[in-house]
Design brief:
Blueprint: H1 2-11, E1 14-20, E2 26-37, E3 41-48, E4 51-59, E5 63-67, H2 70-81, H3 84-95, H4 102-111, E6 116-120, E7 127-131
Antiparallel strand pairs: 1-2, 1-5, 2-3, 3-4, 6-7
Length: 143
C-alpha cells in the first residue's frame, strides 16, 4: 500500500478511499487528494461535490480500498481545469499540518487554533465531537 499511496501523492491524483471495520463492513468514504502518509496515518485533502472540504486524517489499517478509475481521473480533470485543485492544495498547504503520532497531530491543531471534528466509527454507536482543542491531557471519556 505504501508504494501505491506514494504514487498517488506524487501525481496529485484524485482518489476515493474506503474505510472498513475488521469485519469488512464499509464505514466511510473519502474523496480527494492524498497529501502525505506515514506508517500509521494518511493525510488527505477532502472534497465534497468538487468543493474543498478541509483535510482529513485516518488510519492506514482501516483502508479497505483505494479507487482511481476512469471516474476519478475525470473528476481530477474537472478539478484541475476549473482551478479547484490548485486552490484546495494551497489552502491545505497553508495549514502546515504534518503526520506524526495522534497526540502530536492534535497539538498542531491546538497550536493553530483550527476547528476539529473527531469521529469514532468503530463501536455500535458512532460518536463525534466538533470544536477547538482547549487542552491536551490524559485519555478521558468515551474516546
Amino acid at each position: 500500500m505504501k508504494k501505491r499511496l506514494k504514487k498517488h501523492i506524487q501525481a496529485k491524483d484524485f482518489v476515493k478511499i474506503y474505510l472498513a471495520d475488521q469485519d469488512g463492513f464499509e464505514l466511510y468514504r473519502f474523496d480527494g487528494i492524498i497529501r502525505d502518509q506515514n506508517d500509521d496515518y494518511i493525510l488527505m485533502v477532502d472534497f465534497t461535490d468538487l468543493t474543498y472540504d478541509g483535510v482529513v486524517v485516518f488510519r492506514k489499517a482501516d483502508v479497505s480500498e483505494i479507487k482511481h478509475s476512469k471516474n476519478e481521473i475525470f473528476f481530477n480533470t474537472v478539478l484541475a481545469q476549473e482551478g479547484f485543485k490548485d486552490k484546495a492544495l494551497k489552502k491545505a498547504n497553508k495549514l502546515g499540518l504534518h503526520l506524526n503520532d495522534f497526540k502530536g497531530m492534535i497539538e498542531q491543531v491546538k497550536t493553530q487554533k483550527l476547528p476539529l471534528i473527531l469521529e469514532r466509527l468503530y463501536e455500535k454507536e458512532t460518536k463525534f465531537q466538533i470544536g477547538s482543542v482547549n487542552k491536551i491531557g490524559k485519555k478521558k471519556g468515551p474516546y
